[in-house]
Specification:
By secondary structure, this protein is α/β, with parallel strands linked by helices. The chain has 16 helices and 13 strands. Strand 3, helix 4 and strand 4 form a beta-alpha-beta unit. It is globular, with a radius of gyration of 22 Å. The two termini are 30 Å apart.
């Protein structure tokens, strides 16, 4: 088992704190393995194995369904004394009303509770009633480049070759652990994508026109890193002779978000100092999702570099926005407490450097500004704007 220390450190911080720890992210991003790592660490720290209760609530395990009462009783039966028990509950979203069971276990037993789920239904609805102020949400993403290198440490490839592989293959742990060629990798990711779409979206929301839903997904995938609106999708579909309401498009986008397939990045107006509600960007949970749907195209790398940088900023705890500065756009404004950084992403310098640097220099404050590029010769400083290679940016501990 290859450790993912960042998540373990985070869970360590919240250990024995009376909050439900909710690990949420797309299917197969490694949540179950993180729970296994936690169980191992608990045993190593002296917790008796019979005081660690691990339950997995996949639809395959409970084909006939399970009620929240049955979930509660099943766990309560395993609690034999008043000592602390550690509950590691995997894929709880499969149980309707799971939050009632978890809330009861939090209240009437000596427990420290960790749950995972691959649908952000986890964060909505009844959870507000039963667990308000009693949970902490920990987003789990596919592998960072740093983690990818750890998974590939016995590989003979150079860091540069592994970066190129990471850009093309993505960061699903199952792919990184194997030694697959590109075609096999995309087939594996396509299987993950299909299970997400089937289990978390089309079945759950009873999508009637699957072909039209897929066309909307394809539009989003084609436009990663570009601002667009639901209206733009409706107009595009109309040009293809397909009819779809704006409301339905909003629903599709929301369902894809709740299944952690896409992540919304709002625009921030630097002049008005406000978050804008229109012309957002969407990024894919993993770059490989684009390639498994559309095939790999070197021309699409520029947009997917943005995708990588966006998630690296998220992993480091930043809130991330697209920046609007009058008529100019800044790829990312990343905010963390009182800190802020600005980031432009481009594939090559110097031909793109004038525009990228100029957009940043127009921002009249003293927060750090970066241009992140794949250009190996580009490094240094242009009028206070730091030029960084993508690998250095992804592996940097702080900015």
């Amino acid at each position: 088992m290859i450790l993912r220390p960042r998540y373990l450190e985070l869970l360590r911080t919240y250990r024995d704190v009376p909050l439900v720890k909710i690990l949420a992210g797309i299917r197969r991003c490694g949540k179950s393995t993180i729970l296994e790592m936690l169980a191992k660490e608990l045993v190593e720290s002296g917790i008796a194995e019979d005081h660690i209760i691990s339950m997995r609530y996949t639809s395959e395990n409970f084909e006939d369904g399970m009620t929240s009462k049955e979930m509660y009783q099943g766990i309560k039966e395993k609690i034999k004394d008043t000592d602390r028990y550690y509950l590691l509950l995997d894929e709880v979203q499969e149980i309707d009303g799971w939050e009632k069971a978890v809330n009861s276990l939090l209240e009437d037993a000596n427990t420290d509770i960790y749950v995972t789920g691959s649908n952000s239904k986890l964060m909505s609805g009844e959870i507000s009633t039963y667990l308000t102020g009693r949970y902490i949400s920990i987003p789990v993403y596919t592998l960072s480049f740093d983690e990818y290198l750890e998974f590939k440490k016995d590989n003979k490839l150079s860091e540069k070759e592994l970066l190129n592989e990471y850009i093309r293959m993505g960061g699903f742990p199952i792919v990184a652990l194997g030694n697959f060629d590109e075609r096999s990798s995309y087939q594996i990711v396509e299987g993950i994508y299909t299970s997400v779409i089937t289990s978390d979206i089309t079945k759950r929301h009873q999508v009637k026109n699957f072909d039209l839903f897929n066309r909307v997904v394809r539009y989003i995938v084609e436009n990663v890193g570009k601002t667009f609106s639901a209206n733009a999708i409706v107009k595009f579909l109309k040009s293809e002779g397909r009819a779809l309401s704006v409301e339905t498009v909003y629903n599709y986008l929301e369902w894809l978000e709740k299944a952690f397939v896409i992540y919304r990045c709002s625009r921030y107006d630097l002049q008005g100092k406000s978050v804008l509600k229109t012309q957002e960007k969407f990024y894919l949970a993993d770059a490989s999702l684009k390639y498994c749907i559309m095939g790999f195209n070197p021309k699409s790398i520029a947009a997917m570099l943005e995708n990588l940088v966006y998630f690296e900023l998220r992993r480091k705890g930043y809130e991330v926005y697209v920046g609007k500065n009058e008529t100019k756009e800044v790829d990312f404004i990343a905010v963390q407490r009182d800190e802020r950084i600005y980031v432009q992403v481009c594939r090559r310098l110097p031909e793109e450097s004038d525009r990228e640097v100029a957009n940043l220099l127009e921002i009249k404050d003293h927060y750090p500004k970066y241009v992140v590029t794949l250009d190996e010769l580009a490094a240094g400083n242009i009028n206070g704007v730091k030029i960084m290679h993508l690998a250095d940016f992804l592996l940097s501990k702080s900015y």
